[in-house]
Structures are given as C-alpha cells and as structure tokens.
Amino acid sequence: MKKINCFCLCALALFSCKSKSSEPKTTTIQNNEQPNVLFICVDDLRPELGCYGNEYIHSPNIDKLAQSGAVFTNHFVSIPTCGASRSSMLTGLLPRTKAHLSNEVIHNLISGQPEKEAPETFIHHLKRNGYYTVGIGKISHYADGLLYGYTDSVGTDLELPYSWDEMLFDAGKWDTGWNAFFAYADGENRQSLNRQVKPYEKGEVDDTGYPDGLTANLALTKLNELAKKKQPFFLGVGFFKPHLPFNAPAKYWDLYNEDDIPLSPNPGIPTDVNKASLHASGEFNGYQLGDEQASLEGPVSDAYARKLRHAYFSCVSYVDAQIGKLLDELDELGLAENTIVVLWGDHGWHLGDQLVWGKHTIFERALKSAFIVRAPGITDGQAIDNIVSTVDLYPSILDLCGVEMPHQTDGKSMVPLLQRSESKWDNLAFSYYRNGISLRTDRYRLTKYFRKEQPVIELYDHTIDPNETKNIAAENPAIVNELMPLWEKGNTGLYVP
Q: Catalytic residue numbers?
C-alpha cells in the first residue's frame, strides 16, 4: 500500500473567472461545529439506479442514501471525459481552452505549479480553513493521485500538490494505481496483457478481489482514525467501477437475469444527425478480445448488448455495496449526524445508445450523471428536478460547510434548492466536447458544433423525445433562435480560432 502525506499549502487560479455565487450564506453547522464531508466519486456512473426509478438495478445502499438525501434528477457534467470533468468539478470552472477538455488538464495546468492566493481546488480551500483532507483512490484524474504513465512505476509527485493532508491508495496485487484501475481478478491488467482482454469479467472472488473492495476497506480504516480527530474532515473516496473493464465479483453478476435486462431505448443514430457528433467506441474496442466490435455502421447483437449491460449493472451493484460499507461505518461511529455525504458520477456513459459504447459525446447519455447530496438538517429524501451543473458543486459544498467562497467561479450554490427556498433558479447547464457546445434547459437540448460537417445545430425536445432520437432544429428555427441567446451564455470562447 502506498501512503503519501502532504502538509504544505498551495493554490492555483486555473483560468479567468466568470461569475460569483450571490446566494445568501446558509449552512448546516450545529453546535458551532463544522460538518465533516464524505465525498464519493464514482467513475462512469449513469443515473441508472433504483432511486432514479430503475427497478431492475440492484443499488440498495445508494437508494438508502437517497431516502435521507436529495436526488438531483437533472445533473449534467461540463465535459464528458474523466480528467476534464473532475477538473471542472474541483475548480468550479467551465473550459476556456481546448486544453481544459483533456484528461491531462490538471497535470498540465495545476500540478507542479507554485502556490498562489487562489486555491487549486475547493478541497484546498477547505484545508486552508481548518479541514483535515484525505483522498483515497481516484478523485482527480490519476488513479491514486500520483503522476505517472499507465505502464510506469509509481510516481512520487501529487497531481494536486496542495489539496491533501493525506493521499492514500491500496494497489494490492496490482502494484500500481493504473494497473489497479484496469484490473482483472488474477492480478493482471489491461496493460500487462497488451489489451488482449475482454471488456468484462465475472470474477470468482470476494469484494477485495478487485481494487474497489480494497479502497472501501482503506476508507473504513481512515474513517475510524478521523472520528478521533478534533477537527472537521473532508474524506474523498474514488471508486473505479463501473468504468471499463466491466469486471465485478460473481455474486453481483448473479443478482441479474441477463434475459430480463432491457436494451437501449435509442440504439440508432438520431434522425438528421451527422456521425461526426458521435464516435466509433474506440476505448471500448480497445479491449481487443471483445465478443463483437462496436461501430456506427450498426448495433452489436442484442445478446451481446445484454451481456455488456449485465456486466455494467453488476459493476454498479459492486460499487453500491462498497458505498454501503462507508455509510454503515458513518452510522456506527456516530458521525452521520454531522457529515455531509456527496455521491457524484463524473459523467454518464452510452450503453449502446445512439450506437455508442462509451462517453465522449455531448448527448444526454454522456452528460447526465448520478448526483446525490445528504446534508443533515436539510435533506429528507426529496427529488430535485432543477437543471444543475457540475460547476455548482464547489460553491455548494463551501456553503454547506460555512466556508466563504475564495474567488469567483462559474457555479452557484445549490443550498437554496436543498432548502426549497429557491424560486429563480435559471435551469441552464453547459457542456463541451467534439468541437461543440451544448445547452440543456428544463425542456430542450440545443447543441452547436464548430465544424464543416452538417448539420451543425441540433435540437431535442425532452418533453416528447427524452432519448434524443430526432434532431428537430431544421423544422423549428424559431425555437433555435429563442434559445441561442441562452446558449451564448455558455460560449466561453473555447472554439474561437
């Protein structure tokens, strides 16, 4: 097990800032004690859970969290790729340049920089304000928070050098964080097997036979230590699944009858959409022993689609069990009453939707992710249907913790939504990828691409077409014109030549 302790302070202003939350300061602080924060990141987690109305998914622990929390039914990420999405979440900022769309954005623009007045992340700012901060697993982009390549030895430099008092990870039999990220049950990984692997595995192992079980156990140990500290803590726990490869212990596969698993409700390319808006599932096809290859020329077989969806859902159930261990430990330690719990999926994932197996589009499937907040004294099992963005997490968590915002961000506090006191929420979310910018309102998705391939404007009406099967922009120019000024609010100059 690797353990890195960082005791210095530093910050980095990532890019120019746009707007500052003007919401009144409201907190959950009771008895003059600042609340702890348990922040759970889950890689590639679609909002396909029991608490989102999907009865065929076995997610009892997340569902239990939702019963005392707030389920955000319309949360959208800024960028549908891991590192860039996490950077946007941690900094509260939308992308300004193409560099901000890269998985390496934190590495390239934050790591190794000198400390500045503005914090590098909201976690760094919590640390400056008395919080003891611990990260376990993948919170930013690198699997264990340390900088090194997929096939390199473990690095020594922190990806976020000033955010953590401790950065921890147990790589187990896989030795490095990146090996663990692409782990198979026998101790091998995608790199060691030169991609000659299937994109799924039903492992005859217990929970610790894959890395997320080790992450949960390490988090339990750390929670017990943090419970004894006389200062509030921020504990970030990053789980790998259901990221590819879809590998999980057999007992989670056995929760499902594959024949009963539903297929995608939108398995084809939408009407009047150019293939340039989609992609050929390159990451997925990189698992070269897959039963079939995905393609924009046609869907995989129904049987293989069900197998893959079975594998993905098994991974969701596996990570749900690990999350349950953390929540149970909070209760056992008497911490639940003063701990904010945030569950956040870093983006969605196409499971054959629009012929894609993967993220990396600015369609609904890649942009909409799971997001649940439990704030003691505020949440009580409500569903919040307002449109919210990943950039709203930064000001919201600081607001809940009673910590002043250090600088302007592109987000605003969602605490008024949690308190049911917000009547003027703008219900807009902006997302960026594939040379395009997408606006989501409470009814429409309007996307504009900066490219030669036509059409460059796509419009979807989610009241009648929630699966985005038909681009209606050409037949509704008045709606496009009405929405375009709102779309312009998200035009950060990213695609200006």
A: 82, 141
